[in-house]
């Protein structure tokens, strides 16, 4: 019997007979099994490989059907002759060498913004809600679901927004999406690249800026003043849509005051424009009362409110939402009538239960205290290790702050040196429309995913790196 040594893996999704067929076909194409060779009998090969006869028969049948093998009475399966030049060539041919992954230093301390505290995730409560959601009748659970999202989840979100953010809306206005980038992509299709210009704060979230650019929108930067958006500059622009983070500007952290909020709303009314309010981390404010959302002040139905569960719960469930102005609902429904809901039905139903049972509210209260302690640990560590050599910016809310070291001008160099020592810190330059225009040398430090001990030790070691620069 010819030697056949296929690597058959029962854990793969590909059936065993397909794995055997592909192996034998490739052996023939490469010339390892020559024309005229008689293949092992079905019984012999199944015994040799320890697989069922049905598996071998199915693989042989496919080889016969495609003309690689013929079945002859009393002789068995014989490899046929075929012209290799006439065989179909793959549509994609690799023309480059895949680079080997570079060796990386294991990072002991990662100040990445966007990381959350997974140690306090309410796994028991979430698992219970997932299990209860599984009891939903199959005709409701095992399908794409409502186009705008699960109705009960949207009702819970509407209730939550009224209680937490002062927003009056109905569940019909709410759309569930799979992350802020996907949601923004939908919004891009409600406007027109030909007639609409989008304004964004400068600096602002570069990820959203990329979404607008990928949809071929003209995006204009609007500078910031000490108290936020420069309204006068916006009024002089040709923008008809603006994306803002008024409750906690990303990345500088200031709060847009009530006077500017009112002017911004008047701008939208005057220009027949719209405001996209990204309220990405409003739950985590550590000083003073919670700031009402811009949407709560919107009497002319001009604000598109966007929220997420990535910071308050976990980004792993991929759930965000937006509240559409009533005037855009029909546009949305006509534009996306043929789209399916992107978020898993089971996740939506579990989240609705999680909110209905009060778990989300309790979790937010708990995490506000947890993150407040981490934030204070970071501020104290910076003060202790750097004193007046460091200036802290935007520390009153959210899960990150900016710091400016008095003696540091080469931020990218500092980031690289810290990385080599096992510390991930991040330049804030990417948030500016043009990072080459020398924005202030800010370092962005996220603290959500680190313990208080890691924060303190990470800053202590960072001090040695920073001071080695200006000492040398």
From TrEMBL:
Which Gene3D superfamilies does the record associate with it? Type I PLP-dependent aspartate aminotransferase-like (Major domain) (3.40.640.10), Winged helix-like DNA-binding domain superfamily/Winged helix DNA-binding domain (1.10.10.10)
Domain HTH gntR-type stretches: 14-82
**What name does this protein carry?**
GntR family transcriptional regulator/MocR family aminotransferase
Query: Entry's PROSITE patterns?
Result: HTH_GNTR
- Write out the GO MF terms: DNA binding; DNA-binding transcription factor activity; pyridoxal phosphate binding; transaminase activity
Any matching Pfam family:
Aminotran_1_2
InterPro entries (alphabetical): Aminotransferase_I/II_large (IPR004839), HTH_trans_reg/aminotransferase (IPR051446), PyrdxlP-dep_Trfase (IPR015424), PyrdxlP-dep_Trfase_major (IPR015421), Tscrpt_reg_HTH_GntR (IPR000524), WH-like_DNA-bd_sf (IPR036388), WH_DNA-bd_sf (IPR036390)
User: Which cofactor(s) does the record list?
Assistant: pyridoxal 5'-phosphate
